[in-house]
Amino acid sequence: MKAHVLDGKAFAAKLRVTIAGHVAALHQAQGIVPGLAVVLVGEDPASQVYVRSKGKMTREVGMQSFEHRLPDTTSEADLLALIAQLNADPAVHGILVQLPLPGHLNSDLVINSIDPAKDVDGFHISNVGLLGTGQKAMVPCTPLGCLMLLRDHHGSLAGKHAVVIGRSNIVGKPMAQLLLGDSCTVTIAHSRTADLAAMVRQADIVVAAVGRAQMVPGDWIKPGATVVDVGINRIATDDGGTRLVGDVDYDSCAAVAGAIAPVPGGVGPMTIACLLANTVTACCRANGLAEPAGLTV
Ligand SMILES: Nc1nc(=O)c2c([nH]1)NC[C@@H]1CN(c3ccc(C(=O)N[C@@H](CCC(=O)O)C(=O)O)cc3)C=[N+]21
């Protein structure tokens, strides 16, 4: 059997068309243009690629993109002052501070200084608490994108056993909350889980978000299970180049899984599309307008 491919690239492209429609309608009916501010501190090359890609897609759907690039020597006070300015700017509906931040900056402090209503990453403690208690929140983009792919493929997720590998605040924990919200039985596994292979073999849904290249082999996958690969790892190739791989070993997993989201072309494009979706949602909430269906949970 060869797994069905969960085509995040195509899904995200359709979602961006839908978002562009909502952006055009907001502009026509209300004269409002949703705005997203992205803040990048330092010169990490991978981060620069993502920030460029986010800016391009933000403009493509008709929204305003504000990019702030700061040197890696930026003080915490200066970064907090910029965030205060963006919090107060009515043209800015969403604020994303690219992570990881340079080591001298306290990322918890920085993230919690963002107005929760503009926190399109969903990382502010207030949004984390709202999500955890089933209230209306800004939902983290990567888990939201994974959930959209899973719902699209399965319809209802109720009663399925989901094993989330990874316990980060940005993927593992919010992913588990979303799956619980959809009535899955959820296990959060991690590097210290005893007999991880046996645990993963019980899963109807596997979400791999550990940050270790190709660490999940096909013989950990229950035949027919759905595999969502969140990993983004650049590895060396034999010809001296590099290539992007996920946290699962694609070929061996695709041979046993019922469905699998590949890297690249799976969760990555969904993350950016969900960032745009969150910005539209934040813009509608800020203006007291009904938010479009289908952009969040
Ligand atoms: N505050 C914050 N929010 C984030 O959402 C955030 C962040 N910081 N820091 C970095 C990570 C990483 N991230 C990705 C987004 C899209 C792709 C993506 O589109 N990947 C393409 C391939 C891109 C390539 O070729 O490099 C794909 O998987 O098909 C990857 C990674 C968002 N992040």
From TrEMBL:
GO terms for cellular component: cytosol. Its EC number is 1.5.1.5, 3.5.4.9. Pathway: One-carbon metabolism; tetrahydrofolate interconversion. GO terms for biological process: L-histidine biosynthetic process; methionine biosynthetic process; purine nucleotide biosynthetic process; tetrahydrofolate interconversion. InterPro entries: Aminoacid_DH-like_N_sf, NAD(P)-bd_dom_sf, THF_DH/CycHdrlase, THF_DH/CycHdrlase_cat_dom, THF_DH/CycHdrlase_CS, THF_DH/CycHdrlase_NAD-bd_dom. PROSITE patterns: THF_DHG_CYH_1, THF_DHG_CYH_2. Residues 6-121 form the Tetrahydrofolate dehydrogenase/cyclohydrolase catalytic domain. NADP(+) binds at residues 166-168, 232. One of its GO terms (molecular function) is methenyltetrahydrofolate cyclohydrolase activity. It comes from the Bacteria. Pfam families: THF_DHG_CYH, THF_DHG_CYH_C. It catalyses: (6R)-5,10-methenyltetrahydrofolate + H2O = (6R)-10-formyltetrahydrofolate + H(+); (6R)-5,10-methylene-5,6,7,8-tetrahydrofolate + NADP(+) = (6R)-5,10-methenyltetrahydrofolate + NADPH. NCBIfam families: PRK10792.1, PRK14186.1, PRK14188.1. Belongs to the tetrahydrofolate dehydrogenase/cyclohydrolase family. This is Bifunctional protein FolD.
